[in-house]
Amino acid sequence: MIGYNPKDWWKLIFAFHRSDTFRFLLPGIIGVSVYTGVVAYIENDIFHASFKNTTVVHSLVGFVLSMLLVFRTNTAYDRWWEGRRLWGSFVNNSRNLALKLNAFLPKDNPARETLRILITNYIFAAKEHLRSGVHPKKLIPLGQYDADFYSNKKHIPNNIMGAIYQEINNLHTQRIISGDRLILLNYELQSFSDNLGGCERIKRTPIPYAYSLFLKKVIFLYVFTMPIGFVIEFKYWAIPIVAIIFYVFASIEVIAEEIEDPFGTDANDLPTDSIYETIKENLEEIL
Amino acid sequence: MIGYNPKDWWKLIFAFHRSDTFRFLLPGIIGVSVYTGVVAYIENDIFHASFKNTTVVHSLVGFVLSMLLVFRTNTAYDRWWEGRRLWGSFVNNSRNLALKLNAFLPKDNPARETLRILITNYIFAAKEHLRSGVHPKKLIPLGQYDADFYSNKKHIPNNIMGAIYQEINNLHTQRIISGDRLILLNYELQSFSDNLGGCERIKRTPIPYAYSLFLKKVIFLYVFTMPIGFVIEFKYWAIPIVAIIFYVFASIEVIAEEIEDPFGTDANDLPTDSIYETIKENLEEIL
Amino acid sequence: MIGYNPKDWWKLIFAFHRSDTFRFLLPGIIGVSVYTGVVAYIENDIFHASFKNTTVVHSLVGFVLSMLLVFRTNTAYDRWWEGRRLWGSFVNNSRNLALKLNAFLPKDNPARETLRILITNYIFAAKEHLRSGVHPKKLIPLGQYDADFYSNKKHIPNNIMGAIYQEINNLHTQRIISGDRLILLNYELQSFSDNLGGCERIKRTPIPYAYSLFLKKVIFLYVFTMPIGFVIEFKYWAIPIVAIIFYVFASIEVIAEEIEDPFGTDANDLPTDSIYETIKENLEEIL
Amino acid sequence: MIGYNPKDWWKLIFAFHRSDTFRFLLPGIIGVSVYTGVVAYIENDIFHASFKNTTVVHSLVGFVLSMLLVFRTNTAYDRWWEGRRLWGSFVNNSRNLALKLNAFLPKDNPARETLRILITNYIFAAKEHLRSGVHPKKLIPLGQYDADFYSNKKHIPNNIMGAIYQEINNLHTQRIISGDRLILLNYELQSFSDNLGGCERIKRTPIPYAYSLFLKKVIFLYVFTMPIGFVIEFKYWAIPIVAIIFYVFASIEVIAEEIEDPFGTDANDLPTDSIYETIKENLEEIL
Amino acid sequence: MIGYNPKDWWKLIFAFHRSDTFRFLLPGIIGVSVYTGVVAYIENDIFHASFKNTTVVHSLVGFVLSMLLVFRTNTAYDRWWEGRRLWGSFVNNSRNLALKLNAFLPKDNPARETLRILITNYIFAAKEHLRSGVHPKKLIPLGQYDADFYSNKKHIPNNIMGAIYQEINNLHTQRIISGDRLILLNYELQSFSDNLGGCERIKRTPIPYAYSLFLKKVIFLYVFTMPIGFVIEFKYWAIPIVAIIFYVFASIEVIAEEIEDPFGTDANDLPTDSIYETIKENLEEIL
């Protein structure tokens, strides 16, 4: 995620950040401009065509297209924000779990460190699992939970969670944590897995294929039929007009695509690296 | 569900996938084109009719129709996404239940395998139950829970869940699982039935009949009155215009119909088969 | 609720089902047509009036009216879907409660039958309570819980729920159900009352009076001022135009009114009768 | 709240109820009409001004204004409906609490009456607290909980809730209610305070000042610049046109203002008085 | 937050509050006016340019821009309202926790005061933590929990919560609070951390960079190309027209920016100071 000041209008208007859709769409914009120029030349200078009121069709379709793009934007943003919410829940659960364990465990119990490291590793593994996969070597080793323990596992976060459950269960068997307190710890443990499952769901399920297909086809149809009518009314002025309309409509779709899978390392993705650091710091301070 | 790269614009624009609405609507598009051609011939070449500003009525109605189609799209997508959420919850619950059982049960207790198979069967049965029904032979048999056990039952997932409750209750009666731990297992068991109930609700309750009826009538009225005014202004150009507008409006309705019941095996349906495989693998790794 | 195939376009387009708004609005449509004809005759043939660009005002107001109608549609649909959700929750709770009771109670305990009948009666009473009221005679009598028990009660579902609580509490006092298990049963019992309360809320609280009043006034104003401007531009063609626009706008309001209280026996109401049958069957199979 | 039949169109269209925005806005409508008349006289009869296509600007701004008004309507309605939901939750919680207490407490325990009166008083106090404040004299006195007990308290509902917690805790200390059952009672007690807090939140937090300010300014700008362009095109017909548009736009804002704080005694407010009566009756029947 | 009467139209229309966007945008409005004047002079008086129907492009783009601005407004308002909800939850949790502690703790137990002060400090620290940071000196000192205790901590609210958990756990170890009662206290303690985590999430995650960038670019493009077409049709009248349109569109973005981070001390921010006072008073009255 990029840190930025949303109130700095001039900087944002003239910024051409690498994640700016303008940069990404530039070849498309040039292509559309050239195409419009050619249509304008053919219709006006060769055929001298003329018909009336030709923009009405694009108004009609433009309306429904705008609404579909806003639907697209809403769903993409909802996924992004749900992803943020799930990672916020990781922060909350880590804190609550640490606060409870701190209150329940004697100051010198070695389970404190074990659980702190395991939770930290769980968050790290969750973060990497949602990207390209977890390197067991990058996890903090501790006692039996070393790189060997983690290798050969298909779903590393699940295995770490298994270890956490096992450790807490042992504390219960050793009567260090009472049954009532075990119930108090349940919500956070359960929620960790639920959050990760939620993130996997967002990552693996883009918007239905039919909508992705349909929206791109309609944008294409819309922009490539536009010059036919517009060059008669606006002559060569149609070139910037069509280019701007293409830029606006295609950008909305492009941003939605980028936002929709928010766990990577792109400019608009969620700051899962820094959330991990926050959790690590919180755990070290509390536990 | 189709795996696809949402960022590959050209491929998506020119793809004519079997699930593409263009293919499905092709007969309709041809019909609308022929009809528009006939209207154009009659009005322009026979009656030489002329009136002014005739597109305004279609703008007015087009507006409210677009908004209704977006309402339709939103409700259909909400069902699809809720279905996905419920199946995501199956994944989470299976994991959490397995993690808890793994921590609670001794390593050599045969209930481990029994419960793993029962949960796997439950998910399989849920998946098939939401399609054409469950074949008892396709379930993994184990001890008393064989094909005979499952046959003659009306609602097989309920019966499997009954067996799971029974097994866990027996573990409690045998004092292997304490009362506090029984409380910890409750949430996941309950949630399995809630999820399946949610899926049944989505499957059995399409959008109210009145909306389905009304939307189709308005699209029909809209498209079939369109040529009357448009052929005067656009002559034979009205043919592609009306065809495109029909394609855009009808597609939105058609996609919504497809998305709204997401548990089948269509191109846009949820990947419940692969979710089942994921759950099976997770259970095998953990328990 | 009407069972229908949402993909059967022709049938839906030409169906004139008794719940179709077209049938309901027919007198209104005829009235509007006659009124428009009269206005057309007066303006065009008597006064020969003429002014320009008269449709712009109806575009402006049509826009805001469309958006209000979509707001209306959304709120009505939300109630309908929440009602469906609450009845889906009745199904889930009955199943979970039955599954738990089946695991907790010895096979020969008479409380099994008592509770099965009481839950079945509760759902039946809830269904009737949301319509015209419960006939005690229609409930399944069992031991002390016969028609006499139910008569003279103001709120019959509450009384049945009271009996269920009493029965389960007795099982706890008799040490058949332990304290931990009592906690496990709590969620479903509580949820039954919450669901019924939710349905009562939907039934008793239509959309605020001010919106109902305002929307009908604006539709009236809109449709009855429409011919004044339209007959100049479209002559007698204004008759079908105004009739269609009236049909489209008034239908949205009419459907919303029908959908908003979904517990009756109308064509678009929820299938609470068949949900009751499902619950009854489920309970008989499990318990 | 006004009871009304939403299907009685004619009555609603011609009703001029005291809560009708038409009545409230009448002075404004007259003012706008006079102003438009004056502008029409000056522009047409004095300056004989003329420019073209002047309605396009109002279309553009009218569009964004309509969308903001729908945003306003949605947020106001959401508050109203959330308020209704919270009061529905009061009904559900009272019922569940009464059902549980009925099952847990011996038939002759005086705590039954005490708790019934305290819960009834809590709902009454909540209702009054959300209006102008609670008169201790209006609460039902019982033993130590008389008018003196309630006077001198800043937040009376909190104090009643404190008494309820105290009573139930005493029952636990006296071993009449076991620890497990205490846990079962917790949800409802907690939810009472949460509901009241939710109502206080809705009451004390109107829509952000910036939106209220901005919307009123834009409606003002919109309506007062409208005659400048419209009188040229529509002559004195601009008077009813501008009056109608003012009526429609201002009404939406006015209704939203009325709906947004739903706990008073206005025509569109929630029927908290009759909900209180329902709760009182339910409690008397159950406990 | 500013207290205001939403029904006082005249005051709001003519108020130029320091938080009014008009004041903030004044330099921009003047700039846009001058720019439009220059364009008008060049096009009309120097080049005598003329083309037709030039407003249609701005209608098309204006439509999609309006919808994006409403999307922006919705997301900003949702954050603001979620923030309000979280602070409302602080109020509810403090009350419930105090009510429970009051019932559970003997009248003379010193833990009453300790916990009251700690909860009060937690809310104060949460409030300041969401602004510029917590000054340990401003917290109420009590016994070991004095300014020294709080200094050198990175995340002060977490440390206070740790102390609360510790105190309550000690009460449990001393058998003053039973295990069942400990479970009853869990929800509120957990919810405090969840609420603060939720506020941190809102504060640290503005709308995705891509949307902020894109919206500002489109508003800029829209307003700065507008005079090119408008001065031909409206001559020097284009100056107020473009200025008004700029004011309306830019205001929506500016308000959304202000609303989106609602924990500061701006005019539209949440009244966290007065909510803190309410909680403090409630706690003093109950505990």
UniProtKB/TrEMBL annotation, chains A, B, C, D, E:
<keyword id="KW-1133">Transmembrane helix</keyword>
<feature type="transmembrane region" description="Helical">
    <location>
        <begin position="54"/>
        <end position="71"/>
    </location>
</feature>
<dbReference type="InterPro" id="IPR044669">
    <property type="entry name" value="YneE/VCCN1/2-like"/>
</dbReference>
<dbReference type="Pfam" id="PF25539">
    <property type="entry name" value="Bestrophin_2"/>
</dbReference>
<keyword id="KW-0812">Transmembrane</keyword>
<comment type="similarity">
    <text>Belongs to the anion channel-forming bestrophin (TC 1.A.46) family.</text>
</comment>
<keyword id="KW-0472">Membrane</keyword>
<protein>
    <recommendedName>
        <fullName>Bestrophin</fullName>
    </recommendedName>
</protein>
<keyword id="KW-0406">Ion transport</keyword>
<feature type="transmembrane region" description="Helical">
    <location>
        <begin position="209"/>
        <end position="230"/>
    </location>
</feature>
<feature type="transmembrane region" description="Helical">
    <location>
        <begin position="21"/>
        <end position="42"/>
    </location>
</feature>
<feature type="transmembrane region" description="Helical">
    <location>
        <begin position="236"/>
        <end position="256"/>
    </location>
</feature>
<dbReference type="GO" id="GO:0005886">
    <property type="term" value="C:plasma membrane"/>
</dbReference>
<keyword id="KW-1003">Cell membrane</keyword>
<dbReference type="GO" id="GO:0005254">
    <property type="term" value="F:chloride channel activity"/>
</dbReference>
<keyword id="KW-0813">Transport</keyword>
